[in-house]
Amino acid sequence: MNEEEIKNTIFHLLMNIAPDTEPGQLQPNDNIRQTLAIDSFDYLQFIVAMDKAFGMETPEEDYGKIETLDSLMNYIGEHQHSHG
Amino acid sequence: MKEFRMPSLGADMEAGFLREWKVKPGDYVQRGDIIAEVETQKGIIDIEVFDEGIIGELVIKEDDKVPVGTLMTYIHTSEKEVEKEPELVREESKMTAVQVKEPVKQMREPVTAPVHRIRASPLAKRIAAEKGIDISKVRGSGPEGAVIREDIEKAVQEKVTQPHKEIPPPIAEEIAPPSVSVQSYTENIRMAVAAAMSRSNREIPHYYLQTKVDMTAALTWLTEANRQRSSKDRLLPAVLLLKAVAKALTDVPDLNGWWENGLQRKKDIHIGFVVSLRTGGVIVPAIHHVDEKSPDELMKMLSDIIPRARALKLRSSELADSTITVTSLGEGAVETVYGVIYPPQVALVGFGGITEEPWAENGMVGVRPVMTVTLAADHRATDGNIGNQFLTALKQHLKQPEQL
Amino acid sequence: MNDNGTIITLTYREAIKQAIRDALNRDEKVFLMGEDVGRYGGAFAVSKGLLKEFGPDRIMDVPLSESGFVGAGIGAALGGMRPIVEIMTVNFSLLAFDQIANNAATLLHMSGGQLNVPVVIRMNSGTGRQLAAQHSHSWEPLFAHIPGLKVLSVGTHEDARAMLLTALTDPDPVIIFEYTSMLNIEQEISSEVQPVDIRRAKVRKEGQDISIITYGPGVYKTLEAATELSEAGIDAEVLDLRVLRPLDEKTIMASVAKTHRALIVEEAWQSVSISSEVSARITEKCFYELDAPVQRLCGIEVPMPYPKHLEDASIPQKDQIVAIVKKILQHEGV
Q1: Which of B180, B177, B176 is nearest to B314 (CA)?
Q2: Where are the domains of chain C?
Q3: What whole-number distance in Å separates Cα of residue A25 and Cα of residue A6?
Q4: In Å, how far is B331's CA from the nearest CA of chain A?
Q5: Is C249 a catalytic residue?
Q6: Is beta strand C186-190 parallel, antiparallel or unpaired with respect to C7-11?
Q7: Would you put residue C137 in left (φ > 0), alpha (ψ -120 to 50) or beta?
Q8: Is there a cis peptide before residue C147, judged by omega within 30 degrees of 0?
């Protein structure tokens, strides 16, 4: 998956979790949860969906590393590679 | 035979629109089956039955506005009663001996096909009869969906202009499921919340108590538990909070109930969990039997119910059954929640955010993750002493997460 | 009296006075009796000047004893006279209720048809100007309940001018309700007096969409409402019941059969009222003509309040009539 595909997949997943938001408006350094008003429950749903979509397993202690769109994409880029 | 009446789906509900019957006369239903979809201020709600039996006449027509308590249909609850129906007696007299030996199977057959009670003005009915119009196929535009003269005259007109063709309904309308746009309910939900909260502040003399809980043990336990789980099985702190409330209610049952001509304690613990909608307003679905569920089971229930609550797609029991409310505002900067009780309940437990604070214990000061828990309770039902016992028990349970 | 049929403007009060004067001129057996009707000119100045014109034998002041003077009026009627008995307001008529209900209404029946009681009893009803509960009630329904009485309601100036004359030709007791609130209202009527049929309700305005059935002060209010409704494209028919007992079913049913909807407007309390009866009869006789439930707009069920705004709020007003008709016709829940 290239960067654009990853981004689109993330947007798609966010839209599924929070249909009444517009992830497309996210700036690279916006805090995703705060900007889209996603609570812990929805966030967990997002992580579950994300793990499935990218074939990875995000441990709880890494939640702090994926707070913005930029950092999330980096994280996915790295872990997607390492998990094949 | 039991009468099935429009259930109240919350203190603020006066009526709902019957959007769809999910059963027809003669259908066999069991407890928990969904028999209808009703549109309320809080979206389209699946209406469940609580009896086993056979559906009788559908008294209410689809799209009718149905006040709470209105007879909707009958449920023939036992074989014996079904036999009282004259139609069935006639059927039985025609039965062969073999058929008689299988009464249960017979019971599952349609009993009779009663005619819908049609809401129409006397004049409309008369003209329909005169002009040979099937009034059940005419859409009413009158009060509460009643068919009036104008509707029949339109039908007559259509019959005259297209004498040999049945007019096909617009395809999209027929196939598309009733679409629920969350936005379209925003205003309604606001009004529903306004009505319930106004009533609460008008009628309920609230008293408020609060305490602080050291969450070290709970968070440590949660981190450990989640470490062994894949993301889809992970637990959220809310599960521990709900479970601790349920246990504390088992210890102090006076806060689990309704105020209806005095305190009605409830045996079952159904916790209404406040779900905020991004578009504004809150929906409070009941999490059933929290005391009997493990944290994992509770997490599964939340995963099922919260998205449905957000999509305004709940079941009737989930809107009507709550015996106490829990609200957690822990995601922002809020530390303390002073809640407004949802009538007719008698208590609301509020959880603030977890913040690091200096904490003195055993003569030592340390920094701990601390959460403020508040109780808003109905002073007609209980006094501060009961509230104190409850918060003390709740605090105790949160300190022993492994036992939750 | 003019006979050339020109249009004249006069008050409701003046119309009643002219009717009384006509009656006194036409038949020497007719006389007026009541509290303060003579020297004072009537509590509401209806008979002002008549004492001078006709003398004390025909304009008779009586003691403040409703039971006594109504009984005397009934006696005079039995004796061959044609008395017009004025009771100041319906509120005080309850003191004479025994005479009316137990004597006037029953004697023809109890005498096997031998004793007619041709008495006409006039009384004011409804609100005045802040006269409070004991002087403002609308008790037409009490009288309309009693077999043996004819009960009339004067809802227009034409009826004020002529209804009394027809009533005096009736061989049996007639109760006429006049309305304090209407006494000062001016209207144009023909100077030529048209006889009033006291067996028939009267369509005051023809219409196709809804029948608004009313009487007394409701008539002008409803006509005003109908004018406003016509601006909204609603063609309301206004039916003045005029006879509250016996009800003119034929005219009521004809109107409802035409419009298929009915609203009944009355100032009296709703429970067990004229509107209750009219509504019931429509449902009994006209059910299959109805395209909407019969609706009622009646007095609020409280003793009439003293403050002006509460008095106004206690009885149906034009705006409410307009609003409820729009609701019925626009198919909203009422």
Answers
A1: B180
A2: 7-190, 202-329
A3: 16
A4: 7
A5: no
A6: antiparallel
A7: beta
A8: no
Mean pLDDT to the nearest integer, B6-33: 84
Of B151, A67, B363, whose CA–CA distance to C331 is shortest? B151
Rounded Cα–Cα distance for residues B280 and C169 (Å): 74
Confidence of residue B104 (pLDDT cuts 50, 70, 90): very low
Q: Residue C270, SS3? A: coil
B79 & B147 share domain:
no
**Any idea which architecture C7-190 has in CATH?**
3-Layer(aba) Sandwich (3.40)
Give the residue carrying structure tokens 């336990």.
B221
Q: Which of B3-7, B336-340, C27-31 has the lowest mean pLDDT?
A: B3-7
| Alpha-carbon dihedral B364, B366, B369, B370, rounded to 10 degrees | 50
Give B36's Cβ-side CA count (13 Å radius).
27
The token duo for A52 is 């499935």
pTM of the predicted protein model:
0.50
Q: Which residue reads 């009033």 in tokens?
A: C196
Rounded to 10°, the helix A40-54/A69-82 angle is 40
pLDDT band for B184, please (50, 70, 90 cuts): low
Would you call C14 a catalytic residue per the annotation?
no
Interface contact flag, C333 B141, Cβ < 8 Å:
no
Q: What is the CA radius of gyration of chain B?
A: 27
Fold of C202-329: Rossmann fold (3.40.50)
Enclosing domain of residue B33:
2-108
> Which residues of chain B lie closer than 8 angstroms to A40, CB-CB?
236-238, 331
Ranges of residues in chain C whose predicted pLDDT is under 50: 1-2, 332-334
Tokens representing residue B142 in the block: 């009158």
- C326 near B CB under 8 A: no
pLDDT at A74: 87
- State the angle between helix axes of C218-231 and C318-329 in degrees (0 to 180), rounded to the nearest 10: 50
CB contact under 8 A, C291 and B143: no
Q: Cα angle at C162 between C160 and C167, to 5 degrees? A: 100
Among C14, C35, C66, C266, the one annotated catalytic: C66
Separation of alpha carbons B359 and A21, rounded Å: 40
| B42 pLDDT more than 80 | no
Hey, where are the domains in chain A? Answer: 3-82
φ and ψ at residue C117, rounded to 5 degrees:
-120, 85
Mean pLDDT of chain A: 83
Kindly indicate the confidence band of residue B317, based on its pLDDT and cuts at 50, 70 and 90.
Answer: confident
Q: Which residues contact B61 (CB under 8 A, 6 or more apart)?
A: B18, B116, B117, B118, B119, B145
Contacts of B148 in chain C (CB under 8 A): 291-292, 331
Please name the residue that has the structure tokens 């702190």.
B237
Q: Which helix (H) or strand (E) holds B350?
A: strand B347-361
Query: Do A39 and B331 count as a contact with CB atoms less than 8 A apart?
Result: yes
Strands B324-328 and B271-273: parallel
CATH level 2 (architecture), domain A3-82:
Orthogonal Bundle (1.10)
**B194-203 pLDDT, tens digit each:** 888 898 999 9
Give the CA angle between residues B390, B392, B393 to the nearest 5°. Answer: 65
Domain boundary residue, one of B131, B146, B175: B175
Query: C111-126 burial by CB neighbour count: b if 16+ within 10 A, else e?
Result: eeeeeebbbbbbbbbb
Inter-residue contact C237 to C205 (CB < 8 Å): yes
Which residue matches tokens 């059954």?
A: B321
